[in-house]
Amino acid sequence: MSVYTSINIEELKVWLQDYALDDLIDYQGIKSGITNTNYFLMTARDRFVLTLFEKNTIEELPYFVDLMSHLAEHSFLCPKPIFKKNGTALSVLKNKPALIVTCLKGKELIKPEVSHCAAVGKSLAELHVKSANFKAQHQNTRDLNWIKKTANSLFDALPQDESQLLKQEILYQEKQNYKLPKSTIHGDLFRDNVLFLNDEVTGFIDFYYACTDYLILDIAIAVNDWCVNDEGSFDEARLNAFLDAYKKIRSFNENEDQAWNDILRLASLRFWVSRLNDFYHIKEGELTYTKDPNHFKKILKQRIGL
């Protein structure tokens, strides 16, 4: 959630006239994250999050609005879209698609413990269950086709060993023929996208990589962040706590058990490539935050050794 598009308070006040909100008192850019521009909006009684979408067209966004609305209606803790006076949620600000959602209480955890991982595993299973009857579908925009296309733009810039590792892992994933349950997934459940208060989950945020894909891919993405040591290996206690809590609500089938390690590799590959892309194709912004790609190279190498 970097800030690539700058706005001032007078522009915001004019734009917010379409919403039935209290007068804007203050606003603040949010530095963390790497894809969209985000601001906190503070009114006399409430706090909201404004997102300006840097890559999506407005036609691509109703899926995310509908998904968050669906989950909120089913008592899942997530941001709720704020609708304008005319009954629509999406708008345009500074020539970018824009959306306001509620701001949840709590903060992200830097160093999660076993109990936190269990809580996230439980909440992720609840998300999968509560979104099972969500009818809309959305293509994963960070699938293997995207990985291959993005990798092709990186090979010339990469050291030889990284280029070779990337090519080998793409070839490995191309050979797989996954037969796994698909449904709605969050797609980006890192530590900075889960809020905690008094050691309890208060909500998942940043649903803008949500899509229809393998349920265990969602789990693999999460445990590759929540349950790893600095060198990329798993902390077995945190991993087991996460998986045990998840499986109490939704168990793996036989195909998921068999594919688990390969999906862990796919999740590692996806985020190594996205971080390489952000590192080598830097986008300028007022407040920008680029994450270290070497972290996911280490994780991928660990998963290949499983």
What does this structure look like?
This protein is 40% helix and 15% strand. The protein starts with 8 loop residues before the first helix and ends with a helix. The strands form 3 sheets. It has a 5-stranded antiparallel beta sheet with strand order 1-2-3-5-4, covered by helices on one side. A two-stranded antiparallel ribbon has the order 6-9. The protein has 306 residues and is an alpha+beta fold. The protein folds into 2 domains: 9-102, 2-Layer Sandwich (Phosphorylase Kinase, domain 1); 114-304, Aminoglycoside 3'-phosphotransferase, Chain: A, domain 2 (Alpha-Beta Complex). It has helices at residues 9-15, 62-73, 114-130, 144-152, 160-174, 215-226, 236-247, 254-280, 294-304, and strands at residues 24-29, 37-43, 47-52, 91-93, 96-102, 182-185, 194-197, 200-204, 211-214.
Key words describing this protein structure:
single chain, 306 residues, Aminoglycoside 3'-phosphotransferase, Chain: A, domain 2, 2 domains, two-stranded antiparallel sheet, 9 helices, 9 strands, 40% helix, globular
List the helices and strands and how they pair.
Elements: H1 9-15, E1 24-29, E2 37-43, E3 47-52, H2 62-73, E4 91-93, E5 96-102, H3 114-130, H4 144-152, H5 160-174, E6 182-185, E7 194-197, E8 200-204, E9 211-214, H6 215-226, H7 236-247, H8 254-280, H9 294-304
Antiparallel strand pairs: 1-2, 2-3, 3-5, 4-5, 6-9, 7-8
Helix pairs in contact: 3-6, 3-7, 4-5, 4-8, 5-8, 6-8, 8-9
